[in-house]
Amino acid sequence: MPSRLPALHVTTDGVGDLDVDALVVPVFRGAIEAPGAEQALQALGLDEVPRDARFRGRLGEVLDLAAPGQPWGRVTLVGLGRMDELSGEQLRRAAGSAARHLAPTCRAIATTLVLVQPAVETVRAVAEGVLLGAYRFDDCRPGRDPLEVADVTLVVPSSLVDAADRQLQLARTHAAAQNIARDLVSTPPNLLGPDDIAQRADGLVSAGVEVEVWDEARLIEERCGGILAVGRGSARPPRLVKLHYRPDSPVAKVALVGKGITFDTGGISLKRPSEIMESMKGDMGGAGAVLAVFSALADLDVKVEVVGYLCLAENMIGADAQRPSDVITIRNGTTVEVMNTDAEGRLVMADGLSLAVEDDDVEAVVDVATLTGAAARALGKRASAVFANDDDLLRQVLTASEAAGEAMWHLPLWEELRDNLESEVADIDNIGRGDEAGATIAGLFLREFVDGRPWVHLDIAGPFWQDEDRYHNPRHGTGVAVRTLLRWLEMTGR
Predict the structure, then answer these.
(1) Of the listed 239, 271, 447, 483, which one is catalytic?
(2) Where in the chain do CATH 3.40.630.10 domains reside?
(3) How far apart are CA 56 and CA 29, in angstroms?
(4) pLDDT at 137
(5) What does the angle CA 481 – CA 485 – CA 491 come to, to the nearest 5 degrees?
(6) Of 251, 252, 249, 278, nearest to 265 (Cα)?
(7) pLDDT tens-digit readout, 428-478
(8) pLDDT over 90 percentage in the chain
(9) Taking the CA atoms of the chain, what radius of gyration do you get in angstroms?
(10) Range(s) for CATH 3.40.220.10 in the chain?
(11) pLDDT score of 199
């Protein structure tokens, strides 16, 4: 089941009138008080912000102060970082840090974070931060106490009250969608194989979204050789899920393609080191993100027709697993020499991309995939790599990512590296010669299957998974790219 979200409200009341378990007030780095902090500290009999090694006002730091005799159970200071670096994403992260810190013990919280930078987008950023920060994956621990935070109040100026409801609705829809992706990525692989995702899709998408599931027989009939080859080694057969959202009077038609490897051993080219295998239950993060996007389209009244392809398989070692040097045929007829079975994501995506561009009405294609360790090595765990064959579409997606606060960085598709993909026995091989520019080589491989259609490839191999809680993102599945894609579709539909 999708994770529940706290209720959100706004008020123009002063901090002294808020009866909550915790009042969250912001502090800039250097112990500079932000709106609400001075009144709260004075009520506690303090002349200044307490400072120690645990709290200096750095972004995301939190410090609880007891509040005897006050309407709040406690005052929680949250760091905003440097004042001259203030942004919507800083406010989102601060709100998320506070919510995550308070979630286990507080039922009702209030915050003055919006007053730091009063604007419509600030209401949304703070609300998203709180909703995302309160998330916890508990599906496998049904006896654990549920999260306590159920009610969140944002203190806003009177000038924003009328616009706030819409911003809270947007924040709630985007956060709920991202949490669906987080749940899918964090679910243990024995509980979420290809068919499990296919069966869940109907219950997760918006009302009116058409869901079509292709089983193994249909995949054979439809010549999806990449998906079939990757799934051969698993006892759980592959699937392709086609999603179709049709609004009234759409202004455009686009396609989304998601990599859905429900667990990745690397196949016969066994993944090394084995310690990274834990996160490979999240190798379906691209498909999870695309499915999550379809959960929100109707609620957002997006005026873009959207077709989605979830390319689902489990990459295992089995009696019939594909071998290095096998040659397979992709949906569009391209033959591929499989030189490394751990470069399987691009094989399933090749089928999905080929299907997407068969529709002449599709004006743009965006794919999302946990595709290469090279992207993570280049950009780290905090940013996604972006590749594109169309500058205008690239600008649109990067603008959406900036608005969403999801870091993305454009990497090149160097044409001179295309020759590395040449095979002596097939049209193309799946990894290229040499080990340089692995993320670019993967992007060049995918480009072979988009038939020149405007296309953006998001390699989310870095930020799809975290080893520790950080701001509004939890340990393990992050649901990255969901809010970027939703922002892009909203912008496109205007």
Answers:
(1) 271
(2) 182-492
(3) 6
(4) 82
(5) 145
(6) 278
(7) 999 988 768 999 999 999 999 999 999 999 999 999 999 999 999 988 999
(8) 90
(9) 24
(10) 7-157
(11) 97
| DSSP per-residue string spanning 103-156 | TTT-SEEEE-GGGGS-SHHHHHHHHHHHHHHT----TT-TTSPPP---EEEEE-
| Active-site choice (92, 93, 346, 447) | 346
Residue 273 has pLDDT above 80, yes or no: no
Out of 1.20.120.140, 3.30.70.330, 3.40.220.10, 3.40.50.960, select the CATH number for domain 7-157.
3.40.220.10
CA-closest candidate to residue 260, choices 292, 238, 275: 238
Residues 6+ apart with CB under 8 A from 481: 286, 289, 368, 384, 406, 458, 460
User: What is the DSSP-derived secondary structure letter of residue 235?
Assistant: S
Q: Which of 121, 213, 196, 210 has the alpha carbon at shortest distance from 164?
A: 121
Q: Please answer whether residues 40 and 18 qualify as being in contact, where contact means their C-beta atoms are separated by less than 8 angstroms.
A: no
Q: Which two tokens stand for residue 336?
A: 């591929």
1 pLDDT band, cuts 50/70/90, is: very low
Determine which of 149-153, 258-262, 297-301, 305-309 has the lowest per-residue pLDDT on average. Answer: 149-153
The token pair at 474 is: 């939890």
DSSP letters for 44-97: TT-SS---BTTBSS-TT-EEEEE-TTSSEEEEEEEE---GGG--HHHHHHHHHH
Find tokens 């995301």 and name the residue.
60
Residue labelled with tokens 């057969």: 237
Structure-token pair, residue 133? 């920060």
Q: Is 271 a catalytic residue?
A: yes
Q: Which amino acid is at 111?
A: T
pLDDT of residue 21: 96
Task: Kindly state the DSSP code that residue 301 receives in the 8-state scheme.
Answer: T
Residue 452, Cβ neighbours under 10 Å: how many?
9
Distance CA 321, CA 267 (A): 7
Mean confidence (pLDDT) of the chain = 95
Residue reference for tokens 């209030």: 110
- pLDDT at residue 144, rounded to an integer: 64
pLDDT tens per residue, range 213-271: 999 999 999 999 999 999 999 999 999 999 999 999 999 999 999 999 999 999 999 98
Nearest to 294 by CA among 201, 364, 372, 223: 201
Structure-block tokens of residue 215: 């089983």
Residue 167: CA count within 13 A, CB half-sphere = 22
> How does pLDDT run across 142-169, given as a tens digit for each residue?
766 665 788 999 999 999 999 999 999 9
CATH class of 182-492: alpha beta
Q: Which amino acid is at 138?
A: D
Residue 426 in 3-state DSSP? coil
Q: What is the spatial distance between Cα 71 and Cα 56, in angstroms, rounded to a whole number?
A: 26
* Tokens representing residue 165 in the block: 């409801």
- Residue 16 to residue 295: CA distance in whole angstroms: 39
Kindly tell me if the per-residue pLDDT of 351 is higher than 70. Answer: yes
